[in-house]
Amino acid sequence: MQVVIWSIAGWREFWSTMQVKNTWIRLLVVAAALIPVAVAAQTSSINAFSPYSMYGICDQNTPGTLVMRSMGGVGVAVRNAGVVNLLNPAAYSVAPQKTFLFSFGLEGQNYYNSQTAEGIAKRSVYNTFNFHDIAFQMPVTKGLGLGFSLTPYSSVGYRTKFYQDFSDPIMGDVGPVQYTYQGEGDVTEVKLGLGWEIFRNFSVGVAAQYYWGDIDRGYVMTPTSIVGEGTFGSTIGADNYSISSIKGQVGVQWSPILNQKRLLTLGVAFDFGGDLRPDVSSRIYNADLNYTTVRADTTQLALVLPHQLSAGVFYRTAKWAVGVDYVYQNWGGRNKDAVRTGISGADRRSYEVRYTNTSTVKVGIEYTPNRYDVRRTLRRWSYRAGFRYGYYNQTFNGDRLAQYAMTAGIGIPVKFFAVSSIDVGIEYGRRGYNLAERLGLVRQQYFKFAVGFTLFAGGAENNEYWFTRPKYD
After folding, report:
1. 3-state secondary structure (DSSP) of residue 154
2. Which letter, b or e, does each residue of 137-171 get, where b requires 16 or more Cβ atoms within 10 Å of its Cβ?
3. Is residue 9 scored above 80 in pLDDT?
4. In angstroms, what CA-CA distances link 369 with 245, 319, 423?
5. Most CB within 10 Å of its CB: which of 208, 219, 346, 412?
């Protein structure tokens, strides 16, 4: 009988161990399946559609998981075991022992661009759909957590054309020339970091950031004979930027108030940034039978990442959460070069484009009526809203482009007391409206719809026992 009892106990221990191993295997399989899809999606042809992505590092994507993006993008001071914080590695230290937090998100975007040039109103509409982020967070030991994320950093996508009368000293009046500009590609960020609570309520974090991607930019100049006779070969320009670079980030979080009723956290994060130093392939050639190369270099704004300093405060109670972030990016200090645009505006003039330092303010709020309400499901949902205002990182003849966004979203727990949730968020933003009429620039507005999934494993308060062995009397 003694032998039988020990055999049953051994079998139970073996089965518990196998359950833990199977859970890890499932998570690894899911990650292995999703990451290649996300990587392929991030390197698809067009993930944005904005003429403002013609120069430099392109359009920056809103950072953070959907919970943060639905609150205006705040997150430097967010400290929550149920949220993977992509903005401050110090938050990784909040991961409880024997838990695992996994999240990923999908995002659809609608771009609407309009412009009035020479009295003619023009507009374009474009839709995209893509992965936004894959991330996980887990404890290494008590007070030490590890985090990983794969997110789009910036995207290029534009197709534009204009006509200009062309006159040559030798050929004379050639006639109207069509210039067509287009570009596509993106830069993806992979981050791996550690957060350590070095003493009670005070944590530090460090992360390595790897950036990679390909950006293609090109133009075609096609002359047309003014008298309808003769042919002229098109001139084609093609640039390719291949990026592969490692950067770094550090962060700090301090909670001067932490008790069962409220939490107040202050956070600071610093990104080192620096030149991405891409491998560049550039050439200009004639579209003849031999595609004769005319010139093998072009001028563009450098692909550079700024020093970024982010500071925030986050306050949470049982029902309410409020956060405010300030982000400063040193774009102008890292790059002094400039480039000129093509002809634009009623007076047919070009514009000098250069990087400029930026400041952005983010405000967000979340309301959860009662996450422990047994009868009414909607009272357990979290309702979020936020606002973001700042300036674009490029100037046109010294003028700065204002941009802002309004956000909203809901978080739906998958079951009673659960941390795992399904999140839905929307974002509406505008850019360039402060200068569009005066300078003849594009007025841009966009609408984003996103769905996020958060999977939390472990925790006695929600019965999500994934890594705990079952106990028997």
Report:
1. strand
2. bbbeeebbbbbbbbbbbbbbbbebeeeeebeeeee
3. no
4. 45, 6, 17
5. 219
Phi and psi torsions of 333, nearest 5°? -70, -25
Q: How many CB atoms lie within 10 A of CB 289?
A: 7
Nearest to 113 by CA among 388, 441, 397, 470: 441
Predicted confidence band of residue 189 (pLDDT cuts 50, 70, 90): very high
Cβ atoms of 167 and 120 within 8 Å: the answer is no
Give the residue from 413, 424, 416, 427 showing the smallest Cα distance to 82. Answer: 413
CB atoms within 10 A of CB 6: 10
CA distances (Å), origin 391, targets 146, 286, 355, 428: 33, 39, 11, 16
**Residue for token pair 């001071």:** 77
Nearest one of 137, 103, 128 to 423, comparing CA atoms:
103
φ, ψ for residue 377 (rounded to 5)?
Answer: -65, -40
Rounded Cα distance, 314 and 265, in Å: 5
Task: In whole angstroms, give the CA distance from residue 62 to residue 85.
Answer: 13
pTM for this entry? 0.82
d(CA 311, CA 415): 34
Q: Note whether 360 and 389 are within 8 A (CB).
A: yes
The pair of three-digit structure tokens given for residue 275, joined into one six-digit string: 């030149």
| Secondary structure class of 20 (helix, strand, coil) | helix
- Total number of residues shown for the chain: 473
Query: Token digits for 35?
Result: 């990451």
**Cα–Cα dist 429/360, whole Å:** 14
Interval 197-241: pLDDT, tens:
999 999 999 999 999 999 998 888 777 654 445 556 677 888 888
SS3 call for 398 = coil
